[in-house]
Write a structure and sequence with these properties.
Blueprint: E1 11-16, E2 21-28, E3 31-39, H1 51-77, E4 88-94, H2 98-115, E5 119-123, H3 124-130, E6 143-148, E7 153-160, E8 163-169, H4 175-185, H5 193-200, H6 223-239, H7 243-274, E9 278-282, H8 289-302, E10 305-307, H9 319-330
Parallel strand pairs: 1-4, 4-5, 6-9, 9-10
Antiparallel strand pairs: 1-2, 2-3, 6-7, 7-8
Helix pairs in contact: 1-2, 3-9, 4-6, 4-7, 5-7, 6-7, 7-8
The chain binds 5'-O-[(R)-(carboxyoxy)(hydroxy)phosphoryl]adenosine and zinc ion.
Length: about 350
């Protein structure tokens, strides 16, 4: 007689719908099998995300995106599981646009109810941090993470996957907003961050100098930079109406250089204060090529071990919701069907 051990794997379906990306991911035992994201281009013409249009687009996208995530996972895994084989359903509970969050939350809750599966509520900012746990090598705990997105800028100590401590954050605009708002001043469409990144690669970062704030501690401020760029442009355009066109790449390079400097100086200060040398970045702005390079340069100069999520896991995506849900599942951290989404950021 022999005994056999049956190891059951856990399959999680995760949904992200906090802003203008509808995304679904399938994760098996902490391994991401698929991450399918529908971007909403409808907002470009308005220079920013229009909440009502975002909710409507989520409604249109959510079923096809979930379906595509399951199909893709099956293709990769060479399996044939269906929605009935999912062990838990995860969704972004907060923070975000309430109408957008509601679409994902209602969808996840309905599925959980009809399939009789557990529900996992995920905090979007925690998920950005844990995107660093998707691929190998993973950072060891405790690690530091600079999370830079369109709505937030934070330095966080991750003591464990589910125990995060914010040690610094912005007192006004987020880093992503600094990119997007200055891009708008340059006449670039929304979201301007990726375009500033693209043009900056051809420009001289020292061509112009913009204000860097003097904020004590580990907090950030970006409103001074925004004003400094605005006044500078107004003065120069008065002298030469084609100033922006003629200097676009240098302006992008100088703006990006200033934002990265502000971020990296505080991150360095955080490593000194905490003595933690495992350093990650996360969030949409961590897709920025200049910031990625700067992190690696600081890493080799100051002897940090640095980690950056793959591009598709930097901007909003469901894989980061899935990896967070994986750790919550292991801790039996489930949500009740009465759970409701919240626009606010409280952890
Ligand atoms: O994390 P994310 O996708 O959404 C939020 O949770 O806010 O971040 C979006 C932000 C936008 O401000 C966008 O301009 C910025 O990330 N972003 C970038 C780049 N890619 C996205 N900023 C600078 N350089 C990039 N390559
Ligand atoms: Zn985000």
């Amino acid at each position: 007689m022999h005994s056999s051990i049956i190891i059951l794997s856990t399959t999680i379906l995760a949904i992200e719908s906090s802003c203008d990306e509808t995304s679904a991911s399938i994760c098996v035992d902490g391994k991401i099998l698929s991450n399918v994201t529908a971007n909403q281009t409808v907002h470009e013409q308005y220079g920013g995300v229009v909440p009502e249009l975002a909710s409507r687009a989520h409604m249109q996208n959510i079923v096809p995106v979930v379906d595509a995530a399951i199909k893709k996972a099956n293709a990769i895994h060479d399996s044939q599981f269906t929605i009935h084989d999912i062990d838990a359903i995860a969704f972004t509970q907060s923070p975000g646009l309430i109408g957008s969050l509601l679409v994902g939350a209602q969808f996840a809750k309905s599925l959980a109810l009809s399939l009789n599966k557990p529900l996992i509520a995920v905090h979007h900012m925690q998920a950005h941090v844990l995107a660093n746990l998707i691929a190998e090598p993973k950072p060891d705990f405790s690690f530091l993470c600079l999370t830079v997105s369109g709505g937030h800028t934070q330095i966080v100590i991750a003591h464990s996957p589910l125990q995060l401590e914010i040690i610094g954050e912005t007192i006004d605009d987020a880093a992503g907003e600094a990119f997007d708002k200055t891009a708008k001043m340059l006449g670039l469409p929304y979201p301007g961050g990726p375009l500033i990144d693209k043009y900056a690669q051809q420009g001289n970062p020292k061509a112009f100098k913009f204000a860097e704030p003097q904020i004590p501690g580990l907090n950030f401020s970006f409103s001074g930079l925004k004003t400094s760029v605005l006044y500078f442009l107004q003065d120069e355009v008065k002298k030469d109406e084609n100033f922006i066109d003629k200097n676009l790449v240098d302006l992008c390079a100088a703006i990006q250089f200033t934002i990265i400097n502000i971020l990296m100086k505080k991150l360095k200060k955080a490593t000194e204060q905490t003595k933690i040398k495992q350093v990650c970045i996360a969030g949409g702005v961590s897709a920025n090529s200049g910031l990625r390079t700067a992190l690696k340069e600081y890493g080799s100069k100051y002897n940090w071990q640095t980690f950056i999520p793959a591009f598709e896991y930097c901007t909003d995506n469901a894989a980061m919701i899935a990896i967070t849900a994986h750790y919550k599942f292991l801790s039996n951290d489930f949500a009740d069907l009465s759970v409701s989404p919240s626009a606010r950021a409280e952890w």
